[in-house]
């Protein structure tokens, strides 16, 4: 079957260490992590990645009072992406735009806030807000984008645990190829840092990261002393178009999505399965019609958990065992785990490599875990290479959902 | 409590729930929705804040009595004074 080629023409993001791609990329190349101690209800102070974008840039104070944090993150990223794409948005047919936003979860924050609110009224439910349902419906972050921007095409969120960012992009690609929409806003968002339950759940699981002296070293994938995740918020939304449409309007093209795959471990609620992860990467390569050795960068999902990092490296070793020019990196040492935004944000951090041929390193590795030691893992210092033309972006999640996205430098 | 004091309570609540609106020049006899960008959810917020902050209950059939500052004062002042 002949498919339309789908290209990325804009990006808007907020991460704990940057509110534009330029700022974020600079901090990745300069090794600047930005994690802070956040004070959360019940659980106390915990390391967290918090974004400092200005929500009032695109929302009224009333919108901020009524909506959700995930909605604000989504709106900021979507508006920035449209701006970056230089689409004539005012005059574009808004019914032909689709909005596909990945989320790990949605509604925990709002529900926790509301339970706390009624606890002040002896749990009398007549004090439960009428805003609860519109805030917690699963489509909320995507829906808030459409309300804020007047987009009348389809919108929904993709619930895909921490593979959600990739899943949002894959959904958009498919809808563009089906002709359901002509332009898509797609990616992932997270507001998880406002939910004590997410932190407490990871803590009970023994998967919440700590560091004895430096909060910015808490998230340290592949380091021998790593001990868990840093939960972060963030967002990254891309504009996607069919190649012919992008070229017709003279858009700049940041990359082409040439391969993708989502599969399922079908084995455990939380433990990853390297066999299925490897299968996911191989199937994405098959879609792209590529051999593993053609990939220049593999962005790992590794979250700084003792077991998860090893499992992913096993999968990568299996697929890329004989690929001397394939480099491996990771972004979570800088920004923690941005949950539903992770896959989309981490891809954005690597996209500028198509222009500068520099691969940002995984940081905070003081003693490399021998079980994570792959030959081309880029550690602590950026690596300049001759050319970066293909990025494979891994993103995995609970319940055994795996995703791999392959982006190619655009060549007509 | 006087009707003017009740009007000020309602204005304070509107300032909280509609922070983008300017409430300084509100005409007491004119419908609030004709002077400001308020929707039905905002009126539910007014009802909720009266309940939370002041223990005042407004049954659904009485919502139309919150239409203007004057009608709010007329309807709510006896409720405040009966507390």
UniProtKB/TrEMBL annotation, chain B:
Signal peptide: none annotated. Gene3D superfamilies: ACP-like (1.10.1200.10). Residues 1-80 form the Carrier domain. InterPro entries: ACP (IPR003231), ACP-like_sf (IPR036736), PP-bd_ACP (IPR009081). Keywords: Phosphopantetheine, Phosphoprotein. Pfam families: PP-binding. Coiled coil: none annotated. The keyword Signal does not apply. This is Phosphopantetheine-binding protein. It comes from Thalassobacterium sedimentorum.
């Amino acid at each position: 079957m002949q498919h339309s080629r789908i290209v990325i023409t804009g990006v808007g993001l907020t991460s704990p260490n940057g509110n534009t791609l330029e700022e974020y990329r600079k901090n990745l190349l300069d090794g600047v992590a930005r994690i802070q101690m956040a004070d959360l209800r019940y659980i106390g102070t915990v390391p967290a990645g918090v974004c400092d974008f200005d929500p009032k840039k695109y929302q009224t104070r009333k919108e901020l009072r009524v909506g959700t944090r995930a909605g604000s993150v989504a709106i900021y990223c979507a508006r920035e992406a449209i701006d970056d794409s230089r689409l004539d948005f005012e005059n574009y047919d808004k019914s032909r735009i689709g909005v596909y936003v990945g989320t790990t979860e949605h509604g925990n924050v709002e529900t926790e806030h509301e339970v706390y609110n009624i606890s002040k009224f002896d749990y009398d439910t007549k004090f439960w807000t009428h805003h609860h349902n519109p805030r917690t419906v699963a489509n909320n972050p995507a829906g808030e984008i459409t309300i804020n921007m007047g987009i009348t095409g389809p919108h929904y969120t993709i619930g895909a645990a921490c593979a959600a960012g990739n899943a949002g992009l894959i959904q958009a690609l498919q809808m563009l190829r089906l002709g359901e929409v002509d332009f898509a806003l797609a990616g992932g968002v997270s507001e998880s840092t406002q939910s004590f339950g997410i932190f407490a759940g990871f803590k009970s699981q023994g998967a919440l990261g700590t560091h004895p002296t430096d909060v910015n070293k808490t998230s340290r994938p592949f380091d021998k002393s790593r001990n868990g995740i840093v939960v972060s918020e963030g967002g990254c939304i891309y504009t996607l178009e069919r190649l012919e449409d992008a070229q017709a309007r003279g858009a700049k093209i940041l990359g082409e999505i040439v391969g993708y795959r989502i599969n399922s471990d079908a084995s455990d609620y939380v433990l990853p399965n390297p066999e299925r992860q490897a299968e996911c990467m191989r199937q994405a390569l098959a879609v792209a019609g590529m051999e593993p050795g053609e990939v220049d960068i593999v962005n790992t999902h590794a979250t700084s958990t003792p077991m998860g990092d090893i499992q992913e490296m096993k999968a990568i070793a299996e697929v890329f065992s004989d690929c001397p020019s394939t480099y491996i990196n990771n972004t979570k040492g800088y920004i923690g785990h941005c949950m539903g935004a992770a896959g989309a944000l981490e891809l954005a951090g690597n996209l500028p490599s198509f222009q500068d041929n520099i691969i940002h390193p995984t940081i905070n590795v003081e003693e490399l875990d021998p079980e994570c030691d792959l030959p081309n893992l880029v550690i602590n210092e950026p690596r300049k290479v001759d050319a970066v033309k293909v990025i494979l972006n891994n993103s995995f999640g609970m319940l055994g959902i795996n995703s791999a996205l392959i982006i190619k430098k655009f060549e007509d | 409590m006087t009707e003017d004091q009740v009007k000020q309570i309602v204005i304070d609540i509107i300032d909280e729930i509609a922070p983008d609106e300017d409430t300084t020049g509100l005409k007491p006899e004119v419908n609030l929705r004709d002077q400001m960008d308020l929707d039905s959810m905002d009126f539910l917020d007014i009802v909720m804040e009266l309940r939370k902050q002041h223990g005042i209950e407004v049954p659904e059939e009485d919502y139309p009595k919150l239409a203007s500052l004057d009608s709010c004062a007329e309807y709510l002042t006896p409720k405040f004074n009966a507390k």
